[in-house]
Design goal:
The chain is α/β, with parallel strands linked by helices. It has one domain. It has 14 helices and 10 strands. A 6-stranded mixed beta sheet has the order 7-4-9-2-1-10, with helices on both faces. A two-stranded antiparallel ribbon has the order 3-6. Helix 4 crosses helix 8 and helix 5 packs parallel to helix 8. It starts with a helix and ends in a 5-residue tail after the last strand. The relative contact order is 0.26.
Length: about 325
């Protein structure tokens, strides 16, 4: 596997393992750090457009825009509130979903990826799973040789990425739009990149049953089609937080089982909390963009900030 393709797979692992989506089950899931939402924070916005939360101390407010895990490309949304809050902002904290991948960061990783090359995945499958895979591959508009790897989790990752591209779903927005607007106003921005090398190394060693479960979850997502993501995107644009969270997350929960994924998730949340704390140390106001589910989950970004004594207000409060 080339460095570029490894980086792309790494980015998809992060986008799938930590994103916002779906309704929470009633009890915590030890393999899904964002399974349980803090219901008191899941509030419909009273302002026009997407929902904002506010984190404050005595002399500073950080306005936090919740961002979906994926949005339809070109999703329209009212930017009036964003424009108002960018005026005079000391800094803009962009979504912490940037990653770096170095095949040299884990001993033997490059050789492991090379060993995963093989005949097309569908030639390794049989029965109904093969039929489903071929249909999903064709729906994504890709040839069989695109998936010439032995590892079913890896193939599932690539398939989901190809499918999302084919139906024009993106994980780049709204962060990309906010970054562009901040740059135009010459506002300082902050983002973070963490290495996924160790995660990629662990992913190559997952057992056959875990790999098959992830491949089946990938097929479920393709078969479900883009309608759910489109409805969630429209709900997000209208400030309907619960609707924005209402997507299936089987594949996300599957990837959370990769050894090291939970530690990576915890690091990202800690980094996001620290960035907001730094912004709160400066009088005035700042803007942050955080993925919805890590923002609102038990043990998530807002939960951690409340535990530190900061005041948190919901989108339903004036």
């Amino acid at each position: 596997m080339s460095f570029a393709k490894a980086a792309a797979v790494g980015c998809l692992i992060l986008a799938l393992a930590v994103p916002a989506s779906a309704q929470a089950p009633a009890v915590p899931d030890p393999l899904d750090p964002d399974a349980v939402l803090l219901e008191e924070l899941v509030v419909t916005a009273i302002d026009k457009g997407p929902a904002w939360w506010r984190v404050s101390d005595a002399d500073t407010t950080v306005y936090v825009l919740g961002a979906p895990g994926v949005l339809p490309k070109g999703q329209a949304w009212d930017q009036t509130v964003l424009e108002r809050r960018l005026n005079g902002a000391s800094t803009v904290i962009l979504p912490f979903n940037s990653v770096s991948v170095s095949l040299l960061s884990v001993p033997g990783l490059a050789l492991q990826w090379l060993r995963l090359k093989g005949k097309p995945m569908e030639e390794r499958l049989s029965g109904d799973i093969r039929r489903r895979f071929v249909a999903a591959r064709e729906a994504a508009g890709q040839p069989a040789k695109r998936y010439a790897y032995k590892n079913e989790l890896l193939v599932g990752l690539i398939l989901v990425g190809d499918y999302r591209d084919s139906v024009k779903l993106t994980a780049a927005d709204p962060g990309k739009s906010v970054a562009r607007m901040a740059k135009a106003r010459k506002i300082k921005t902050e983002s973070r990149s963490l290495s996924l090398g160790p995660i990629l190394g662990q992913a190559t060693r997952m057992g056959a049953a875990a790999q098959r479960a992830c491949l089946e979850d990938a097929l479920d997502e393709v078969e479900a089609g883009p309608a759910g993501a489109r409805r969630a995107g429209a709900a997000w644009a209208d400030g309907d937080v619960r609707g924005a969270l209402n997507q299936e997350r089987g594949y996300e929960r599957c990837l959370a089982s990769v050894p090291g994924a939970l530690n990576l998730d915890a690091r990202f949340k800690a980094e996001q909390v620290a960035a907001i704390e730094r912004a709160l140390a400066k009088p005035g106001h700042a803007v942050a963009v955080v993925q919805l589910r890590p923002l609102l989950s038990q043990g998530g970004v807002l939960d951690r900030l409340q535990a530190k004594g900061f005041e948190v207000k919901t989108p339903g409060e004036p």
